[in-house]
């Protein structure tokens, strides 16, 4: 995979190394990092990643973290970065879908409006931080033995949005309530944190992702959700509203083509794929070989085997 990349021509996924790596990094003011599969796997930092980010920070680069995970607050991410040896980060440098969803609803909802949440404590905490009342987190049981009972459960008249994130307590009871809120008020917003359909685990295992839950609510409601996470550019807009970010001097670093790389390409960023996560080079090659223009938008400008491969270009 070689050739011209970026705005000068088609993206062809060149290996980023040597003089090209030094030039690309020198031209960047800001780097946006996905987290799991890029900086760490589970609770273990990827070898060399903390050192690479330390050198980037020492060189004066702005480091931001953009993740579709709605299960952690911004503060929790800063603590994990510190614990794993990465450069210190402030909460304002973290852009998770819990925070971005709360930001979106704060803009979209009238004062005093509430959200019905299919999600966990982090989603609830970020809503509380921006003053949005909410209900729904935690287990829920059907209110009676028959469908007629299920359709009569009390509804909070303040609810003007249904927000779907990762919810380990997702259930038919919650799906019923979400549908009833959406049917009761055609203006009730339907918002999802992301469409990631599968979350990979170590050893090749996987669990269903938030996208499965979003799809269930969309199917029941016969409506499409607004998605705040990657590849939607709303997540990048959140970064751009917080910092003076020039897309031409910003690098998106990720391990997923259909989220990280697609968002970066859509927003005019330089895109860098790392192979420590879910994507292999043969997937990129299949997109390059395709006659479908949409698949070409999944091709990154560059790739590295690991973020640690940037260390030689960053010097001592």
TrEMBL record:
Q: Which InterPro entries match?
A: HAD-like_sf, HAD-SF_hydro_IIA, HAD_sf, PGP_euk
Q: Which Pfam families match?
A: Hydrolase_6 (PF13344), Hydrolase_like (PF13242)
Domain of life from the UniProt record: Eukaryota
Keyword Repressor applies: no
Cofactor note, please? Divalent metal ions. Mg(2+) is the most effective.
Please list the residues that bind substrate. Answer: 230
Read off the Gene3D superfamilies from this record.
Answer: HAD superfamily/HAD-like
Q: Might you give the EC number(s) for this enzyme?
A: 3.1.3.21, 3.1.3.48
Q: Which UniProt keywords apply?
A: Carbohydrate metabolism, Hydrolase, Magnesium, Metal-binding
| SUPFAM superfamilies, per database record | HAD-like
Its GO biological process terms?
glycerol biosynthetic process; glycerophospholipid metabolic process
Cofactors (names): Mg(2+)
Active site residues per record: 34, 36
In this chain, Mg(2+) is annotated as bound at 34, 36, 255
One Gene Ontology term of the molecular function aspect:
protein tyrosine phosphatase activity
Quote the cellular component terms of the Gene Ontology held in the record: cytoplasm
Q: Which reaction does it catalyse?
A: O-phospho-L-tyrosyl-[protein] + H2O = L-tyrosyl-[protein] + phosphate; sn-glycerol 1-phosphate + H2O = glycerol + phosphate; sn-glycerol 3-phosphate + H2O = glycerol + phosphate
Q: What class of enzyme is it?
A: hydrolase
TM helices/strands, residue ranges: none
- General function of this protein: Glycerol-3-phosphate phosphatase hydrolyzing glycerol-3-phosphate into glycerol. Thereby, regulates the cellular levels of glycerol-3-phosphate a metabolic intermediate of glucose, lipid and energy metabolism. Was also shown to have a 2-phosphoglycolate phosphatase activity and a tyrosine-protein phosphatase activity. However, their physiological relevance is unclear. In vitro, also has a phosphatase activity toward ADP, ATP, GDP and GTP.
How is the quaternary structure described?
Homodimer.
The family note in this entry says: Belongs to the HAD-like hydrolase superfamily. CbbY/CbbZ/Gph/YieH family.
Q: What is this protein called?
A: Glycerol-3-phosphate phosphatase
